[in-house]
Amino acid sequence: MKAKHWRCLFLLVLIFGVVAPSYPADNGAASPLKLVAYYFHATQRCATCLAIESYSKEALQAKFSEQLKAGVIDWQAVDVEQVKNRHFIQDYQLVTSSLVLVSFSNGKKGKWRTLAKTWNLVRKKGDFLQYVQSNVATFLGN
Question: Strand, helix or coil at 141?
Fold first, then answer.
């Protein structure tokens, strides 16, 4: 993704305002820790962006399938060019397609981390999968 394209997206957000965030809902009951793995991307994507999304999802499914089924981990691929998703650019200081891990407790956003090394590791699939899995395990306290 070209930097010029992201700058245009950022300027659009500033001009048209920020849409209210869509985070996991709080149903009123005490909810356990939840981790959302967001893959933020533009509408048009290159082969590398598609590989990062695919490998990220694979990393989660390979090691955390039970947590995904139980709803402890939620996977979301999000097109930040859609009006309703523009707020994520500012929320997570996005400058390119990114995998971002966000913890939630009782429906409130907690810590978050952009896994920036995904771009460097995309040509080393094994290292990529391990990198994502170790970061997810850290967020879950494992």
Answer: coil
Dihedral of alpha carbons 93, 125, 45, 65, sign = negative
E strands, the chain, where?
34-41, 73-79, 98-105, 108-114
**Nearest residue to 45 via CA among 75, 11, 13, 80:** 80
pLDDT digits (tens, 9 = 90+) for 30-83: 445 799 999 999 999 999 999 999 999 999 999 999 999 999 999 999 999 999
Q: Does domain 33-140 have CATH number 3.40.190.10?
A: no
Which tokens belong to 136? 């997810």
Write the DSSP symbol of residue 67: H
Domain ranges of the chain: 33-140
The H-assigned helical ranges of 44-122 are: 47-63, 65-70, 87-91, 118-121
Looking at residue 140, its amino acid is: L
| pTM for the full predicted model | 0.76
